[in-house]
Amino acid sequence: MGDPIRHVLFDADGVLQDLPGGWYAAMEPYLGDRAKDFLHETWSDELPMLAGRGDYLPVLAASLEKYGVSTPATEVYDAVWKNIVLIEESLGIVRTLKRNGYGVHLGTNQECYRGAHMREVLGYDDLFDVSCYSYDLGVAKPDPAFFTRAAERIGAEVDSILFIDDMAKNITGARTAGLHAEQWDFTQGHPTLHTLLTKHGITAA
Fold first, then answer.
1. Keyword Hydrolase: yes or no (predicted)?
2. Are the CB atoms for 157 and 3 separated by under 8 Å?
3. Widest Cα–Cα separation across the chain
4. DSSP string spanning 67-114?
5. 55, 115: one domain
């Protein structure tokens, strides 16, 4: 038995927040049946920005122009990328863990504009003890270096941290770095999250 877990690091999308209807539906008003192709292309273009290299809005503008969309990039960005609904039951668990004396932290892949929206408008800076945004750390999940840097920023040993994320590749990256990690998304229901936390000796009630 190692030391007890004292910190929980949460992913954002799929765990704490959702895009209503999904990304494809959100882009359909602008691109119709080309929305899926566009998004997969722009997500690929966005990868350097997730690690803090470059400015995403000009990239998005160029992609929209390429697809013949005349709506300004900032308008599309605000309507789609900032269209975030908070999962209140997830946030309630975060608050309970905090009251119970655990460190609660955010570990998410974002470029700087969406990250700033989450920090300032959604209030994540006030909710979490430490926020680890990929653009700020200079490396994105699933790279194990993301988790090593996150642990350093938290100021904790890797094996005292439990990471919760909805993507298997990110769970693998976290475990490679030495963190405890469990895959979960809000569609599985919050009783399942409670079960996972209890498995690691964490009280969230």
1. yes
2. yes
3. 59
4. TT--S-HHHHHHHHTT--EE-HHHHHHHHHHHHTT-EEEEEE---HHH
5. no
Residue 184 to residue 17: CA distance in whole angstroms: 13
Same domain, 74 and 150: no
Beta bridge partners of 164: 10, 182
Q: For residue 204, tell me if it sits in a domain.
A: no
pLDDT at 205: 84
List, for residues 96-136, the tens digit of each pLDDT value. Answer: 999 999 999 999 999 999 999 999 999 999 999 999 999 99
Single pTM value for the model: 0.96
Clarify whether residues 48 and 28 are in a common domain.
yes
Distance of alpha carbon 95 from alpha carbon 82, whole angstroms: 23
Beta bridge partners of 106: 10, 131
Chain segment 25-45, per-residue pLDDT in tens: 999 999 999 999 999 999 999
Is residue 205 assigned to a domain? no
Q: Are residues 27 and 14 in the same domain?
A: no
10 and 105 Cβ atoms separated by less than 8 Å:
yes
Pairing of strands 17-18, 85-86: antiparallel
